[in-house]
Amino acid sequence: MTRFTDEEFARLVAHVESHYGIDLSKKRTLAECRLRLELDRLQIPSLGAFLDRVEADRTGQLATAMMNRLTTNYTFFLRERSHFDFLTREILPRLPSDAKSFQIWCAGCSTGEECYTLAMVLSAYRDGGGWLPPVEILATDLSERALHRAQAARYPAKAMEALPTAWRQAYCRADGDGHFAVREELRRMVAFRKMNLMRPYAGHSMYDLVFCRNVMIYFSEPARRRLTERLGKSLKPGGYLFTGHTELLPREQTVFTYIEPAIYQKGGGALS
Ligand SMILES: C[S@@+](CC[C@H](N)C(=O)[O-])C[C@H]1O[C@@H](n2cnc3c(N)ncnc32)[C@H](O)[C@@H]1O
């Protein structure tokens, strides 16, 4: 197995932190295991030579391949269910009846289970007689490989067992070979886009809700602060931020009010 020298590993840590916010300093074995596959594939002898090529590659393809390997894309349907219960119980019934749209950003959507869970929660609310304005969900991630799987919207039957049977019947269809596909009507609610949360993004709107869960847990402290600030700016006044239950917002963060574990509200008004 390709071993990284201390200098090479320090260079990788600095590169990944400065470009993507991710802190690999305590993940040496994991980084070695994952990048070895890429180095072998490209027949590059050392991490140093690989990083030289990543930095010289204007197309960004090598950086994409590297981050496809280095990101952790673990996710599942109905993860941290209390968030979806809160949405159905506290937010949706209080939406103003003249709201023109309901906009959600799923930042770090990985392979799509989170944004499709949201699409199902909202559809179930509407199908149960609740009123909702037109819904738009933007789902973004850094990993192209994860995004391709998200766009395919096809999952093993086992992965869908976490969903209520009624939702599986209403919002998914059998797709052969022990798989289910998310139905077209729900897929149309979600737009996917590649986005690095550490880079400014032109044309980004303001959202009613931001789900950024189990993403900053991988970030360095300065990157967490930058991300939290950016998420605050992306929310409308009164909008809600959902984080992972193990992620605490930096203390000096002031635009958010703590509501309940891993749910924060931006001050300055109510959703309109
Ligand atoms: C563990 S998954 C979380 C998925 C989902 N939000 C959940 O809670 O189940 C973390 C995701 O964050 C993405 N990610 C990590 N760093 C990122 C960055 N700088 N910009 C955008 N996405 C990033 C990874 O590619 C990965 O898919």
Keywords:
272 residues; alpha/beta; Chemotaxis Receptor Methyltransferase Cher, domain 1; Rossmann fold; 2 domains; seven-stranded mixed β-sheet; 10 strands; binds S-adenosylmethionine; methyltransferase; transferase; CheR_MeTrfase
Topology (elements, then pairings):
Elements: H1 6-20, H2 28-42, H3 47-56, H4 61-70, H5 81-91, E1 102-107, H6 113-127, E2 135-141, H7 144-152, E3 154-156, H8 165-171, E4 172-174, E5 179-182, H9 184-187, E6 190-194, E7 207-212, H10 221-234, E8 235-243, E9 256-260, E10 263-266
Parallel strand pairs: 1-2, 1-7, 2-6, 7-8
Antiparallel strand pairs: 3-5, 4-5, 8-10, 9-10
Helix pairs in contact: 2-4
S-adenosylmethionine (SAM) binds next to loops.
InterPro entries: Bact_Chemotaxis_MeTrfase, Chemotaxis_MeTrfase_CheR, CheR_C, CheR_MeTrfase, CheR_N, CheR_N_sf, SAM-dependent_MTases_sf
GO molecular function: protein-glutamate O-methyltransferase activity
Catalytic activity: L-glutamyl-[protein] + S-adenosyl-L-methionine = [protein]-L-glutamate 5-O-methyl ester + S-adenosyl-L-homocysteine
Describe the fold and architecture.
40% of the residues lie in helices and 19% in strands. The chain has 2 domains: 6-70, Chemotaxis Receptor Methyltransferase Cher, domain 1, CATH 1.10.155; 81-266, Rossmann fold (3-Layer(aba) Sandwich). The protein contains 10 helices and 10 strands. The strands form 2 sheets. Strands 6-2-1-7-8-10-9 form a 7-stranded mixed sheet. A 3-stranded antiparallel sheet has the order 3-5-4. It has 272 residues and is α/β, with parallel strands linked by helices. Helix 2 packs across helix 4 (61-70). The model has no long low-confidence stretch (mean pLDDT 95). The site of S-adenosylmethionine has 25 residues, from loops. Residues 20-22, 71-75, 79, 108, 110, 114, 141-143, 146, 195-198, 213-215, 218, 244 line the site of S-adenosylmethionine.
